[in-house]
Amino acid sequence: MLSKIKSVLAIAAPPGTPLLVGVSGGPDSVALLHALVTLGYRPHVCHYNHRWRGADSDGDEEFVRNLARQLNLPATIGRARRKPSKCSEADARRARFAFFERVAKQTGISMLVLAHTADDQAETVLLRLIRGAGLEGLAGIWPDRRLGRLLVLRPMLGVWRREVLRYLQRHRLAYREDVTNRDPRWLRNRVREHLLPLLERDYNPRIRETLWRTAEIVRAEVAAEPVAAERRAIRQLSFAQIETLRRVLRSEKQAKPVVGQWRVRVPGRTRVAAFGLMLETNVTSTRTRPVRRPAKNAIAAVECFDADAIGDRLWVRAWRAGDRFQPLGMSGTKKLQDFFVDEKIPRATRGHIPLLCAADGRIAWVVGYRIAEPFKVTDHTRRILRVRVRPTG
Fold first, then answer.
1. What ranges in 79-225 are assigned the alpha helix state H?
2. How far apart are CA 205 and CA 98, in angstroms?
3. What is the CA radius of gyration of the chain?
4. Cα separation of 166 and 1, whole Å?
5. What's the pLDDT tens digit per position in 240-281?
6. What is the pTM of this model?
7. Residue 158 vs residues 118, 154, 246, 380: alpha-carbon distances, Å
């Protein structure tokens, strides 16, 4: 989940960018807030109390206020002047965005981050199909959209709710449950609780992914993105062209994984022909901001480590069965195989991904993807190890 959020925000809002973040107190927004802080952001927390649920709404407000205080983050809490006589999803959205606009004006922060997930996207597409919508509507929720003075970013549209719940459990994060999310008076709740499970059971067990993918395809078409033309071109391939491509993919799949390990010079340069890359290392006593490529598996990246924690006898090698490491932001280790699955890395590619290992043998960096938590730069770091990896052609 962290890597998905990081890749979405890398260009529009790198760490250090002032952000507003909408936090309801529910699982999605709590996970987003924790992820932002873990990735180096110090967002301004925004919570709007609609006062729909009386004491429960006030409990949400107090929960968010305490959460911001625990994380030492600034927070602005808004409240409806009086309890509404009737509930309307559209009215609630307007009131909430009017509140966000006011906070943006008060703080001078023009970027707002919200926690809509891939499940929200699937539900939205299905809702719009039911109500009737054109291409713009079937594009679903946009990952970035300008609304008034605000640029709204939704970095979790590629994150499924099951991933959110795993993240909350892994980090032992408390959150609030909104009982109105199961109230059948709301059409979205009926779609979530009844229609989607019916479609999964009787028609398509992957209907949520299908709806999410539909939104991705339509959005690219509406926005005239290059990927839309590429997809159309692929659909026009002849049988002979497809067979040629299939043979190429099969040969790549059968390529043997890299075997062996290589000592990395610190400081200095180390060429590893088996991976087709060069590692350049240097140690400084002054903190240097890491420069990262936003694209995954680019094998051209820079990362910084705590030099004393990682040691000076470094190695680079490929994946081995049973490997484990502790990804940045996690409190415990996980199997590297599970990490590859979560990152959707093809099986045939895994044996060709370089692993930078610390002096004690622990994996410090899955190059191009994630560093390990024990070796990150902190406020207590005295020396910085900077590692640059680039292809050698």
1. 89-107, 118-131, 135-138, 161-170, 187-190, 196-202, 207-222
2. 39
3. 23
4. 10
5. 777 777 776 666 655 678 888 999 999 999 999 888 889 999
6. 0.62
7. 5, 9, 28, 34
